[in-house]
Amino acid sequence: MVLDLGIKSNINPEFVQEALGLLQQIHNGLLELPNNYSPGKMRTLVRVAQLIKDVSAQVDLADIQNLAYRLEKIFRLLSLENQIIDANITALLIEANENLGLLLIAQIQGKTDDAVNLLAKTDSVFANLETRNYQQPIAANSLPKLNVEPGLSHLVDTAEVTQALNNLEMILAQSEADNLVEKLKLAANVFLSFGDRLKITEFVAIAQVAIASLENSPKAAPTIGRIALAGWRTAYEGISKPVISSNGKSINSAIAIVKPNSDRSNQPKTLKTSQLFVWTASGNIFTINSNNVKEILVAQADQLIYSQQQWFLHWQGKIIPTYGVSQLLNAENLPPEKTQPEPIFIISLGQQIIALQPQIQSLIAELELPIQPVPASVKLPSYVYGLTTWKDKPLQVIDLAALLSETVAQNPDISANANLFNPTDTATANRESTVLIVDDSNSVRHLISMTLQKVGYKILHAQDGQEAIAQLQQNSQVQLVICDVEMPNMNGFEFLSYRLKEQFLSTIPVVMLSSCTTNNHRLLAMQLGATTYFTKPYIEQEFLAAIKLIIEHKG
């Protein structure tokens, strides 16, 4: 059933149904809290609030986005161990959630007066909740225990944060893989509480990214932990160690963040890094604001697709362009040759979502980077801050957000904010597209055929590589091949090798679909010219989205 809410013309009805459904999930979860509380349940509510925040941002409902973010922060604090959630807090949470829903409906219906009144009422409830929530005791086993004299609270904060940073460094050095994720989640929650208590927004932003990334990509835990540690350390040093000038006065507040290539005078500049992730790669130093990084992950083989010299990533139902930092500078985006999966940053640039392979060689946790003056005759790109000396070498310091924005602007045909895949809309466009399915299993061929035929594709079949070649020679209209790896007579790798030698076959994209899940199989397939590699069982929506994208690019 679809609700008729009198929605404004500029609001997608699907957004309304999704947002109200998410609010209902929160309501149901809150009803269970008094008798069935657990940190895991609270983290589920955190993720739901995040979704509301994200979908609200997509339709420019700033008030809803802001309140959802505040609700997310409250849920994060309540997800810490040993929190006490009584009936009063539960009632306030339910009231806040209900008011958020009423405000959403008022705004999408264009009822300005009602929205203003509801916003004031909702803000009051949230303020009450935030005050109560910040006064909740932090779990005794979540923070370092320090015995300090009364009246030295500022030293307590310093000691606690310093000890937490040192503890995290030890965790990363000593923890086994099986418990590293949980230890890092606990550490991230500690820094989240520090951020809220000490009003350090960078702590909060990095903690949120770390927690979401650990939940979605636990295999990337070591990388996530190292990046988070560098970010927290730099942010903390930025507020605890003011820079002292030659006359003995603090000059932290007077140092402005340098804009890329904005001032070419001969005076040295300083780039403050307290809000930045900073690392070296490809003979350069790259920087990105921590608030722009939504998630850090290690992609599975079936999440990546290489089509028409461009990488794409399946992420949260979307297909988003993927770049490596070296390829950004060299105007190339070639398949990787490394045998180990690379971490990927999910970066938000306004309405654009982009995946980035940072290719980190070393992380930089310096409080600031001195930017050396460059002669006016030297032409630097607009995304370069300038030069700095790192380990006795002059390196360019690059604003990655500016570089990505420039790259996207130069490639308007590559969507940087792909929409959710819609099989219904795709069926009509696929009626003239023919796909060859190559697999020695009749049942697998039948299942894949059903998946593709229901969205309009024409299907041809082959039991092995030899039959596939014969089919392709007889049917020039084939636009895509889906191929297994392990088959008799001619296996998938042998088929790919043969295809490379035949000009009329080499232009037809091949999607590998196999039960072989090792990274070596995927890399070999990509080196032999496969467009992407899916493992069985596949996620139908992502599989169809990849096929649609490949055929569109081929066309």
Automatic annotation (TrEMBL):
The lineage of its organism: Bacteria, Bacillati, Cyanobacteriota, Cyanophyceae, Nostocales. Residues 434-551 form the Response regulatory domain. The keyword Phosphoprotein applies. The modification 4-aspartylphosphate is found at residue 484. It catalyses: ATP + protein L-histidine = ADP + protein N-phospho-L-histidine. This is histidine kinase. It comes from the Bacteria. The keyword Kinase applies. Residues 273-409 form the CheW-like domain. Residues 4-107 form the HPt domain.
